[in-house]
Specification:
It is a single chain. The chain is of the alpha/beta class. It has two domains: 24-61, no CATH class; 83-273, Vaccinia Virus protein VP39 (Rossmann fold, 3-Layer(aba) Sandwich), CATH 3.40.50. The protein is 37% helix and 15% strand. The chain is built from nine helices and nine strands. It has helices spanning 4-16, 37-52, 65-69, 83-100, 115-126, 169-178, 193-196, 215-225, 243-255, and strands at 26-27, 58-59, 105-109, 134-138, 186-190, 205-210, 229-237, 263-264, 270-273. The strands form two sheets. Strands 5-4-3-6-7-9-8 form a seven-stranded mixed beta sheet, sandwiched between helices. Helix 8 links the parallel strand 6 and strand 7. The longest helix is centred in the N-terminal third of the chain and has 18 residues, at 83-100. Bound molecules: S-adenosylmethionine (SAM). S-adenosylmethionine binds at residues 80-82, 108, 110-112, 115-116, 138-139, 142-144, 165, 192-193, 211-213, 217.
């Protein structure tokens, strides 16, 4: 590979996924969400005492390259959790849209630390595209409590308890800045999808990437944004492996007569092109 554009984008993918470095140990408190209440209380007290001596409890969590390639872990330091294969797919969709002149902007709904959106902005920059925006849609507070009456498929969903998924807008902006990619072509849509998407200042989309994990967080995006996806545009689903998301995608495609093939990226990623 000697094309500087492809070399830059390749390095971006490896950096955004932390693929270049071994995973350093994680601060223990960042793993509290996986522990029972009692051990959280004890560990929080110990952590407080240690902090006075500028000490911290760390947990060793070595990841394999295979886990990083396939987005199989919630990383401690990477700017995205979607893994290299899904970033390759995002690059394919975005570059095809640019090359073929599919009209519209790019969006990800559910951005966490922002890595996939940062990568979309990098693709526009690398190809000298100045007339498309990257929309960055998130609550920046984690996932909502399930609305079990409206979306029975989300019954018992626990994603909202994972504080590790709540990343502030400020932090995501800082992440864009680290790569010199925060500018007027990046537009933040802060709030719950059901509130922000119906009135979002979006005319047309060429790439619609969904990563909201739940039934509600998937169907609300499809209902509000799929009609804005241009013919030939790309709809990318990150969470087809999750029951709620899968059902929302299957319901939407069935109810709207979408028969474009649902292509596989990896164990969880899927995509199709709007016919
Ligand atoms: C799994 S993370 C996204 C990972 C990210 N795409 C990446 O590249 O690593 C899910 C994100 O979706 C957001 N989210 C889920 N449901 C939402 C909703 N209904 N409204 C707003 N944000 C939501 C959460 O705040 C969280 O940041």
């Amino acid at each position: 590979m000697s094309d500087p554009i492809q070399m830059y984008l390749d390095l971006m993918k490896k950096t955004l996924t932390f693929y270049l470095w071994p995973e350093p140990p994680h601060p223990l408190e960042s793993t509290f969400y996986r522990r029972p209440q009692i051990s959280r209380v004890i560990l929080t007290s110990i952590a407080k005492v240690l902090k006075k001596f500028r000490l911290r409890l760390m947990l060793d969590r070595p990841f394999t390259q295979e886990q990083r390639e396939n987005g199989l872990v919630w990383p401690g330091y990477a700017d995205t959790m979607i893994g290299l294969k899904r970033l390759d797919n995002l690059q394919y969709c975005a570059e095809t849209a640019i090359r073929e002149g599919v009209p519209g902007d790019f969006i990800e709904t559910g951005v966490w630390r922002g890595g996939a959106c940062i990568f979309m902005r990098a693709i526009l920059k690398a190809h000298g595209v100045t007339n498309r925006k990257v929309f960055v849609a998130d609550s920046f507070e984690g996932l909502p409590k399930p609305d079990e009456e409206k979306y029975p498929a989300d019954k018992g969903d626990r994603h909202h308890t994972h504080t590790v998924l709540a990343i502030s807008q400020k932090e995501v902006e800082t992440n864009f800045s680290k790569y010199d990619l925060l500018d007027h072509q990046v537009v933040f849509l802060k709030g719950w999808f059901k509130d922000t998407l119906p009135s979002a200042p979006i005319e047309k989309l060429a790439v619609l990437r969904l990563d909201g994990d739940m039934y509600g967080s998937t169907i609300e995006v499809l209902d509000n944004l799929y009609p804005k996806l241009s013919k030939g545009g790309f709809c990318i689903i990150d969470d087809y492996a999750l029951k709620g998301c899968r059902q929302a995608v299957d319901d939407y495609r069935k109810n709207h007569g979408i028969d474009s093939p649902l292509n596989e990226v990896d164990w969880s990623g899927r995509w199709w092109r709007k016919g």
